[in-house]
Amino acid sequence: MNMVAIGIGGLLVAGGAYLSFVQKKRTEGKVTELRFMKAVSLAELDETWKSLANEGLVEGYRDIVETNGKAETDGELKAPYSNAPCAYFEATVTREFEKEERVKDKDGNMQTKRTRSSETVSSRKSPSPLYIADGGVRVGVDLDGASLYLKDGEDRFEPYDSNKTYSFFGVQFTAPAGGGTLGFRYKERIIPLGHPLYVVGEARQSGGGLRIGRPSEAGKPFIVSTKSEEEVVNDLKGSAKGSFYLGIALMVIGAAVAVFLR
Questions:
Q1: Is the pLDDT confidence value at 203 over 90?
Q2: Rounded CA gap, 260 and 262, in Å?
Q3: Which residue of 52, 82, 143, 217 has the smallest Cβ count within 10 Å?
Q4: Residue 184 contacts residue 157 (beta carbons within 8 Å)
Q5: What's the pLDDT tens digit per position in 145-200?
């Protein structure tokens, strides 16, 4: 009896069961919650907050809300690669390179194989605050812990030039010894300035004003999306279905490993 095979098979089955049942159920629960949540306008939200503030009750105000508006920020913010006006961005620089590996062929002889790989060498998120605005009301959004649905921005590859000095977000890059660098991929994801935003999160008093952030109750949705509610729900449905089928596949593979690799 191969205990290693049984152990690996058991782990695959357990992981598959988690994806097929636990993760799928959580995602479906989030879909149900979004479907039955009633959207409030920013004007209504602001009116409620001001009313509580007048009564001296705003410090304890916490409410899970769903709202819509447009993306704003302070000052003039542009995406680093496309230079597009935006309210938020995430940018990465990935080094693409080739490396040599020693592997055995089918006859047991050692062969040198060149494989292509990549690594992130620099990344940055916009430092400016994000707001959702509508009808003269602007509410700050704290993005920590949010499920972000962003728009794809610039995505380009630049071949490596050994005679060029590279600096990413103020930090100079030195190519690793041994070479192999093929080039760099510059990629950004953004919330365009003025783009419609769909936000689900906890409205609360913070920093002297009304803000939306991560819910204090575990498991509650926190979504900041350039997609509509319908698109987000469809994405979550697809994710739940994908988790189920991937989990089933892992359970089948795990059972096969445990039974046949003896």
A1: yes
A2: 6
A3: 217
A4: yes
A5: 999 999 999 999 999 998 888 989 888 888 777 678 999 999 999 999 999 999 99
Q: Domain limits at 79? A: 42-227
Confidence label for 2 from pLDDT (cuts 50, 70 and 90): low
Helix, strand, coil fractions of the chain, as percent rounded to 5 = 30, 40, 25
pTM of the predicted structure, to 2 decimals? 0.83
Burial class (CB in 10 A: 0-12, 13-18, 19+), 249: middle
The answer as to whether 189 is a domain residue is: yes
Q: DSSP assignment of 121-135, as one string? A: EEEEE--S-EEEEET
Q: How many domains does the chain have?
A: 1
Indicate whether 141 belongs to any domain: yes
Spatial CA neighbour of 185 closest among 172, 170, 211, 166 = 166
In-domain check, residue 20: no
Q: Does some domain include residue 21?
A: no
The set of residues, in sequence order, having a beta carbon less than 8 Å from that of 145 and lying 6+ positions away, is 213, 214, 222
